[in-house]
Write a structure and sequence with these properties.
The protein is α+β, with helices and mostly antiparallel strands. It has one domain (14-57). Helix content is 34%, strand content 19%. The protein contains two helices and three strands, in the order βαββα. The protein has a three-stranded antiparallel beta sheet. Bound molecules: zinc ion. Residues 6, 8-9, 11, 35, 37-38, 40 line the site of zinc ion.
């Protein structure tokens, strides 16, 4: 299981950004999150990109 965390400060204290019902259908793939520590916003996709580049460094 992949734990969700902030790609900027690596905090697990994330807030899911909720959209309206119509937008939810249109953008259903892109879930957005906001970090409660550094207040940066990012998508699920950005999170996994970060994890990939981190693995490449090792
Ligand atoms: Zn953060």
């Amino acid at each position: 299981m992949l734990a969700k965390h902030c790609p900027y400060c690596e905090s697990y204290n994330l807030r899911r950004i909720h959209r309206g019902l119509i937008r939810k259908i249109v953008f259903q793939v892109k879930h957005r999150y906001q970090c409660r520590e550094c207040y940066k916003k990012f998508t699920n996709n950005e999170m996994s990109n970060h994890q990939k580049s981190k693995k490449a460094e090792l």
